[in-house]
Design a protein that fits this description.
Pfam families: DUF2207
Low-confidence stretches: none
Shape: globular
Largest sheet: 4 strands, antiparallel
Protein name: DUF2207 domain-containing protein
Strand content: over 45%
Oligomer: single chain
Mean pLDDT: 87
Helix content: under 10%
Number of helices: 1
Strand order of the largest sheet: 6-7-12-9
Distance between the termini: 10 Å
Number of strands: 12
Organism: marine sediment metagenome
Order of helices and strands: EEEEEEEEEEEEH
């Protein structure tokens, strides 16, 4: 499984949906987003849902996702990743969250249970990954589709 939904938009000055292509090689999905520009700063919003990507172990469940890797050829000024686990009641005390990538990245849990990972100044070919450990029961509450 993997991507259930994907949308790319130019976020500012207007919300404009963008064209993209999707390619699959081995177990990696790559999206290329197209937006004509020249020497401009732009804000993009990438939204997607994933299905059946958490791993269930004997004593914990894990969500691990690589958001950017060495295949990204463009530097990115600021990244804000919001992760929402499917369980309705997520307790921050039961989560272990890790961000992998630039050392100045920040990972936090908001009051609404969303996990937020922010990175300033991502170089081209630099990775950004998140690893979240949580109780097995969170997965047992979610129907597999």
């Amino acid at each position: 499984d993997g991507f259930k939904y994907f949308k790319a938009s130019e976020y500012f000055p207007e919300d404009k949906e963008l064209e993209y292509t999707q390619s699959l090689a081995a177990d990696m999905v790559t999206y290329k987003i197209y937006d004509k520009s020249s020497n401009e700063r732009k804000l993009f919003l990438l939204e997607y849902q994933l299905k059946n990507v958490a791993t269930l172990y004997n004593d914990t469940a894990e969500f691990y996702w690589k958001f950017f890797d060495e295949s990204n050829t463009s530097p990115i000024g600021h990244i804000k990743i919001e992760i929402e686990l499917p369980a309705a009641e997520v307790s921050a005390e039961e989560l272990k969250i890790f961000g992998h990538g630039p050392l100045d990245g920040k990972v936090s849990i908001r009051e609404d249970g969303k996990i937020v990972y922010e990175v300033d100044g991502l170089s081209s070919r630099e990775m950004v990954e998140a690893r979240i450990l949580f109780p097995i029961r969170y997965l047992l509450l979610v129907p597999r589709k």
